[in-house]
């Protein structure tokens, strides 16, 4: 059993209230920061911790903080990205609804470090009930003197607000999120300028994922150096994984980075194996945007080493034989899963969620969906398989924001690893479209 | 920027107006347009679960922005309903992880039970079926979201029945989001 730094007290009754959270050591990190540390010292601890952004990109959080422009007399902002919408990912919803004060504590410490006097939590609109939980917790924090004027007599003041979105995956992209927070359509901005220079209201802004901000709390409590000792290499600390799909025990697991993938899937301590006694077929390891891997390549790297739940190990082999840790949305698929249908489903998602401002993405995602639809429904040709890969290649790198890549990568990877299944759909349209039929290799029909 | 439409005949409720005033304090005065998304949520809850062009005009007038600024936002975000809806809008997740655990079957069952196809409202006016993308509940699939409730693990007929019975019991004027917050706000002030 690894250490739990975020979810240690998650099952304590009443932990969502200020009183119980405080009794279990809550707000110690804020006290430590405001009473004994300068803002730059807080940034240094986060740098030392090696924390990498938990939203998906994995960019070092402390480094991101150090890029923030600090012109005199200009307000700056910390914005929490709680727009969790990456298919396969549901950790932030869990964290916010169970431990709202952990996020608030992280927001206070982070805002202090960055010199923000007003901060926002941008939460996806579907989570209105979580917004209520957060508003209640924020009111408690104000009443206890941890928000508002002159917090703990430190002279530092902070206002914290929750802001709902209204249903748009693209608002998880940080500049689209800022547009949305300004009351506009969620169209990502061209960069530069980066948010660190011109973000919310054209002011210097840092946007961080919920889990990244919450993790600042144990980092300050332990000290950055101690935190960095947990994990493997550059994958420091603990991370929440959202396990879903065909697993016996789907749910949220906080792991010390470095647990073998095989152990995570099959151990009773974690996911407890594949449901209904079936075999594992494939895994999407880091949310729907990362390349899918067949069983052999998710359990072991191409070199035959055990694959670990770390940023480096999951990306070993690049996109040829590897994938990415991403958001930690871990989708397992059993032997009865149709990869063509699954790929079509995900490409429909990206087509639906494309904001439409870049032609390669707007047109390309629709084109991929259309071609995959006909392959899945028995009207495809061999040429379509190459066509869909070619469209994916033409989207990649040609869009303002990474939604283009997110749409292209899963399609390219599915064809790379499961080409025979796509071809089987073309050659056997009648069998392929029979309900429940699944290709299992070498022309065998289940 | 002056509104370009005639003054609206619709009005927010007093509670709604109070909530809008409270929300406006969250943003710099010159950036009050930031409140647009939350206000559209309030409008949708107050005016029958959807935002008609008239309701969108009211929002523009209330915030002192041009109607087009409201239209372009209302049509971008999927949670704003642009057509009349039933008393409950069932937002059924159709994305990969839910599909792997039976969202196709769930949708078919809900269509059969309610008598509405996806995108339609049941003949009794109670349920509108709407397919949506990932709701961040993949470990408890398949999932339906109805206003502020998540109904999870809907993979048995019993779970689906329990959800529909729960919703049928709530068919009255919906509780507006901010009505539940009176206590919280008085604490904050």
From TrEMBL, chain A:
Keywords for the protein's UniProt record, in alphabetical order: 4Fe-4S, Flavoprotein, FMN, Iron, Iron-sulfur, Metal-binding, NAD, Oxidoreductase, Quinone, Translocase
InterPro entries xrefs: ComplexI_51kDa_subunit (IPR050837), NADH-UbQ_OxRdtase_51kDa_CS (IPR001949), NADH-UbQ_OxRdtase_suF (IPR011537), Nuo51_FMN-bd (IPR011538), Nuo51_FMN-bd_sf (IPR037225), Nuop51_4Fe4S-bd (IPR019575), Nuop51_4Fe4S-bd_sf (IPR037207)
Keyword Heme: no
Reactions this protein catalyses: a quinone + NADH + 5 H(+)(in) = a quinol + NAD(+) + 4 H(+)(out)
Domain annotation NADH-ubiquinone oxidoreductase 51kDa subunit iron-sulphur binding: ranges: 340-385
GO molecular function per UniProt: 4 iron, 4 sulfur cluster binding; FMN binding; metal ion binding; NAD binding; NADH dehydrogenase (ubiquinone) activity; NADH dehydrogenase activity; quinone binding
Function of the molecule: NDH-1 shuttles electrons from NADH, via FMN and iron-sulfur (Fe-S) centers, to quinones in the respiratory chain.
Record-given protein name: NADH-quinone oxidoreductase subunit F
Organism: Hymenobacter nivis
Automatic annotation (TrEMBL), chain B:
Entry keyword annotation includes Metal-binding: yes
Superkingdom of source: Bacteria
InterPro entries referenced in this protein's UniProt entry, alphabetically: NuoE-like (IPR002023), NuoE_dom (IPR042128), NuoE_N (IPR041921), Thioredoxin-like_sf (IPR036249)
CDD domains: TRX_Fd_NuoE
Gene3D superfamilies on file: Glutaredoxin, NADH-quinone oxidoreductase subunit E
Cofactors (names): [2Fe-2S] cluster
Residues that coordinate or bind [2Fe-2S] cluster: 93, 98, 134, 138
Pfam families the record matches: 2Fe-2S_thioredx
UniProt keywords, alphabetically: 2Fe-2S, Iron, Iron-sulfur, Metal-binding
Molecular function as annotated in GO: 2 iron, 2 sulfur cluster binding; metal ion binding; NADH dehydrogenase activity
Co-factor: note: Binds 1 [2Fe-2S] cluster.
Signal sequence, start to end: none
Family statement: Belongs to the complex I 24 kDa subunit family.
Protein name in the entry: NAD(P)H-dependent oxidoreductase subunit E
């Amino acid at each position: 059993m690894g250490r739990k730094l975020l979810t240690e007290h998650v099952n304590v009754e009443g932990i969502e209230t200020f009183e119980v959270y405080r009794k279990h050591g809550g707000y110690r990190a804020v006290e430590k920061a405001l009473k004994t540390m300068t803002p730059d010292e807080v940034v240094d601890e986060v740098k030392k911790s090696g924390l990498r952004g938990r939203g998906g990109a994995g960019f070092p959080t402390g480094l991101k903080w150090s890029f923030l422009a600090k012109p005199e007399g200009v307000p700056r902002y910390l914005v929490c990205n709680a727009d969790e919408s990456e298919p396969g990912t549901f950790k932030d919803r869990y964290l916010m609804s169970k431990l709202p004060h952990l996020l608030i504590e992280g927001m206070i410490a982070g805002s202090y470090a960055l010199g923000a006097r007003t901060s926002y939590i941008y939460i996806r609109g579907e989570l209105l009930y979580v917004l209520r939980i957060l508003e209640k917790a924020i009111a408690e924090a104000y009443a206890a003197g941890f928000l508002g004027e002159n917090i703990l007599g430190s002279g530092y003041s902070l206002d914290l607000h929750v802001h709902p979105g209204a249903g748009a995956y693209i608002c998880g992209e940080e500049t689209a999120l800022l547009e949305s927070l300004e009351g506009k359509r969620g169209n990502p901005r061209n960069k530069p300028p980066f948010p660190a220079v011109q973000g919310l209201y054209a002011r210097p802004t840092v946007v961080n994922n919920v889990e990244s901000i919450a993790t600042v709390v144990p980092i300050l409590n332990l000290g950055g150096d101690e935190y960095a000792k947990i994990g493997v290499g550059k994958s420091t600390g603990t991370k929440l994984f959202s396990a879903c799909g065909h697993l016996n025990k789907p749910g949220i697991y906080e792991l010390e980075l470095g647990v073998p993938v095989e152990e995570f899937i099959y151990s009773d301590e974690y996911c407890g194996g594949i449901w209904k006694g079936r075999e594992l077929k494939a895994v999407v390891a880091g949310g729907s945007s990362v390349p899918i891997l067949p069983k052999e390549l998710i359990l072991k790297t191409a070199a035959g080493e055990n694959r670990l739940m770390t940023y480096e190990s999951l990306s070993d082999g690049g996109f040829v034989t590897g994938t990415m840790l991403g958001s930690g949305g871990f989708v397992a698929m059993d032997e009865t899963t149709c990869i063509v249908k699954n790929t079509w489903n995900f490409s429909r998602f990206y087509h639906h969620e494309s904001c439409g401002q870049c032609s390669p993405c707007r047109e390309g995602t629709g084109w991929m969906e259309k071609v995959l639809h006909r392959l899945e429904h028995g009207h495809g040709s061999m040429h379509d398989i190459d066509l869909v890969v070619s469209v994916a290649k033409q989207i990649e790198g040609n869009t303002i924001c990474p939604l283009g890549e997110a749409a292209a990568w899963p399609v390219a990877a599915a064809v790379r690893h499961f080409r025979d299944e796509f071809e089987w759909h073309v050659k056997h349209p009648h069998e392929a479209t029979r309900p429940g039929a699944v290709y299992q290799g070498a022309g065998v029909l289940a | 920027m002056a509104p370009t439409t005639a003054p609206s005949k619709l009005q927010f409720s007093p509670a709604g107006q109070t909530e809008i005033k409270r929300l406006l304090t969250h943003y710099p005065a010159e950036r009050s347009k930031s409140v647009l998304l939350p206000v559209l949520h309030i409008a949708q809850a107050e005016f029958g679960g959807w935002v008609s062009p008239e309701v969108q005009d009211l929002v523009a007038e209330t915030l002192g922005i041009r109607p087009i600024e409201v239209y372009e936002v209302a049509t971008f975000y999927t949670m704003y309903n642009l057509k009349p809806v039933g008393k409950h809008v069932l937002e059924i997740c159709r994305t990969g992880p839910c599909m792997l655990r039976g969202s196709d079957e769930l949708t078919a069952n809900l269509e059969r039970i309610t008598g509405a196809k996806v995108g339609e409202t049941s003949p009794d006016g109670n349920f509108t079926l709407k397919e949506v993308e990932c709701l961040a509940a993949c470990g408890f699939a398949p999932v339906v979201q109805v206003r502020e409730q998540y109904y999870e693990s809907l993979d048995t007929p019993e779970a689906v029945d329990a959800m529909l019975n729960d919703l049928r019991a709530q068919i009255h004027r919906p509780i507006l989001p901010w009505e539940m917050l009176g206590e919280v706000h008085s604490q904050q002030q």
